């Protein structure tokens, strides 16, 4: 005799605030919107439970010509890394707009107070995700994905300032024209 399968209510991504994972991939995105969506996604899954996040987003859109899915993957990895490395302290995310002529690229930074990387770990982040420990592996994978989009990821570690991860995406070109 077979046991009846337990009844499960259908999961609707939109009702859980997870609609961002369903849509088609877009190659022109608003970086600030993608960051807000990634934070909402991780809050809905309780991955950021107990972590204080401060988002500093510009009022105007921050255009970037990158894959929405790839950027979302980078942001989810960086948010998860920041949550793991925060040690109960806050995380601040700052988004800078590109200039109107496309000379300065869109840029965002994650500031994690109290987190640090040793010089060895810092070097390993830029070599391979397999050479770095489990805590910073997400950071190394985010670097690989960022570079695959044509962007750069830089990491600064300071005993007083904590850990700062800066991502610069490719400049969108002459967006005002």
From TrEMBL:
Coiled coil: none annotated. InterPro entries: HATPase_C_sf (IPR036890), HATPase_dom (IPR003594). Residues 69-172 form the Histidine kinase/HSP90-like ATPase domain. It comes from the Bacteria. This is Adenylate cyclase. The lineage of its organism: Bacteria, Pseudomonadati, Myxococcota, Myxococcia, Myxococcales.
């Amino acid at each position: 005799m077979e046991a009846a399968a337990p009844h499960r209510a259908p999961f609707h991504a939109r009702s859980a605030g997870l609609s961002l994972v369903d849509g088609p991939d877009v190659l022109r995105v608003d970086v600030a919107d993608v960051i807000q969506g990634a934070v909402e996604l991780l809050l809905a899954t309780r991955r950021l439970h107990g972590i204080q996040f401060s988002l500093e987003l510009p009022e105007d859109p921050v255009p970037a010509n990158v894959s929405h899915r790839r950027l979302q993957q980078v942001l989810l990895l960086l948010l998860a890394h920041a949550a793991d490395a925060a040690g109960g302290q806050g995380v601040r995310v700052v988004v800078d707009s590109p200039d109107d002529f496309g000379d300065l690229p869109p840029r965002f930074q994650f500031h994690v107070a109290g987190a640090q990387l040793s010089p060895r770990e810092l070097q390993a982040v830029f070599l391979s995700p397999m050479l770095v420990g489990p805590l910073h592996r997400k950071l190394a994978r985010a670097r690989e994905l960022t570079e695959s989009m044509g962007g750069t990821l830089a990491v600064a570690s300071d005993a007083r300032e904590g850990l700062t991860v800066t991502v610069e995406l490719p400049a969108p070109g002459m967006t005002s024209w």
